[in-house]
TrEMBL record:
The keyword Lyase applies. GO terms for molecular function: chorismate mutase activity; prephenate dehydratase activity. Pfam families: ACT, CM_2, PDT. GO terms for biological process: chorismate metabolic process; L-phenylalanine biosynthetic process. SMART domains: CM_2. This is Bifunctional chorismate mutase/prephenate dehydratase. It is found in: Cytoplasm. It comes from the Bacteria. Catalyzes the Claisen rearrangement of chorismate to prephenate and the decarboxylation/dehydration of prephenate to phenylpyruvate. Residues 99-274 form the Prephenate dehydratase domain. It comes from Derxia gummosa DSM 723. The gene is pheA. NCBIfam families: CM_P2, PRK11898.1. The record marks 267 as: Essential for prephenate dehydratase activity. Residues 9-99 form the Chorismate mutase domain.
């Protein structure tokens, strides 16, 4: 080295001041998070005096929208959305433990949807069936339930629609999550496998892939994908189709990843409970109606919406099962519209619809995420 040569800086020397700054920022963030938690606890005390619920979907939706809208970067908006969902979940847990029922066991997409809706600082209650999710929520052993409503590949989940028809519960939120299916076995290969098990919806969503790769192996529907993963763990002749989380939970090995036929496969879930959600500024209302079996009846359903400038985003029909065998087929229509039922235009449209329908039920108004 000559007299004028400068020493080459080391990696650690260059990183140290940056790491020191991160450590200082982390301490500031921790302090601010705890200050926020302290204010949340004060909010909880006020709510208790007025017997108000700890979870307000419209308020949390407003907070998340403001966070994303005011984000200067470089963090992505969806990253901040996830971070603040967990912050609010942790703060809410200081007020009260939220109990959430979902289709179990642990490791299902329904559990993932529950965490996406409420964050992970909740008490999850896995249930054996969609019916049990409704029963637990109606009985009050769970504060909320999370149930699948519609899959982008296979369409509506008929059992959920049937149960929504008569339940006293209301929809207070929705969440959509990507659904990636994986084939898994105890050994990590398909040697000796005689059955492929999964929920019926999952088998349908992977039908083309399974027919291409394993056309000779029997497919057996089971209660849930997580149950299929458990069966694969306990029986070397069974392959399960489930999430990567289920494979980890049950200690099985993934043979093939992302075997769903649609790479953009996703499922929409509804949050159900006894809560009436207030307007958040960007909402959706779900309802179910039926009409007399006369010509033009369905067209008449749409007129009040158009007249009051209310947009319809979903329209599904289900047979009226009480009329099966009578020779006369009637239908229930499940409709989603933009706006909250308290919005003037929506309220006017719903009032007109109520007069036209033989059966009319608002399932709930809730924030759009």
């Amino acid at each position: 080295m000559t007299d004028n040569a400068q020493p080459t800086p080391s990696l650690d020397a260059e990183l140290k001041p940056l790491r020191d700054r991160i450590d200082t920022l982390d301490q500031t963030i921790i302090q601010l998070l705890n200050e926020r938690a302290g204010v949340a606890m004060e909010v909880g005390e006020v709510k208790k005096r007025y017997h108000a619920p700890a979870f307000r979907p419209e308020r949390e939706a407003e907070v998340l929208r403001k966070i994303v809208a005011g984000n200067p970067g470089p963090l992505r908006g969806d990253s901040l959305h996830f971070i603040y969902r967990e912050i609010m979940s942790a703060c809410r847990a200081l007020e009260n433990t939220t109990r959430v029922a979902f289709l179990g066991p642990v490791g299902t997409f329904s559990e993932a949807a529950a965490f996406a809706a409420f964050g992970k600082s909740v008490e999850g209650q896995p249930c054996a069936s969609i019916d049990e999710v409704f029963r637990a929520t109606e009985a009050g052993t769970a504060d909320f339930g999370v149930v699948p409503v519609e899959n982008s590949t296979e369409g509506v989940v008929n059992r959920t629609l049937d149960l929504l028809l008569h339940t006293p519960l209301r929809i207070s939120g929705e969440v959509e999550i990507p659904v990636h299916h994986n084939l898994m076995t105890r050994s990590g290969n398909m040697d000796g496998v005689t059955r492929i098990c999964a929920h019926a919806q999952a088998l349908a969503q992977c039908a083309t892939w399974l027919s291409t790769h394993y056309p000779e192996i029997e497919r057996t529907p089971v209660a849930s994908n997580a149950e299929a993963a458990r069966m694969a763990r306990d029986d070397a002749t069974v392959a399960g189709v489930a999430s990567a989380a289920a494979a980890t939970n049950f200690g099985v090995h993934i043979v093939a990843r992302n075997i769903q036929d649609d790479p953009h496969n996703s499922t929409r879930f509804a949050v159900i409970g006894t809560l009436d959600t207030a307007p958040s500024g960007r909402d959706q209302t779900s309802l179910v109606v039926s009409t007399p079996n006369v010509p033009g009846a369905v067209h008449k359903l749409l007129e009040p919406l158009a007249r009051n400038e209310v947009s319809m985003t979903r329209f599904e029909s289900r047979p009226n099962r009480t009329r099966v065998g009578t020779g006369v087929w009637t239908y229930y229509f499940y409709i989603d519209i933009e706006g909250h039922q308290r919005d003037p235009k929506v309220a006017a449209a719903l009032a007109e619809l109520r007069e036209l329908c033989a059966f009319f039920k608002v399932l709930g108004s809730y924030p759009l995420t």
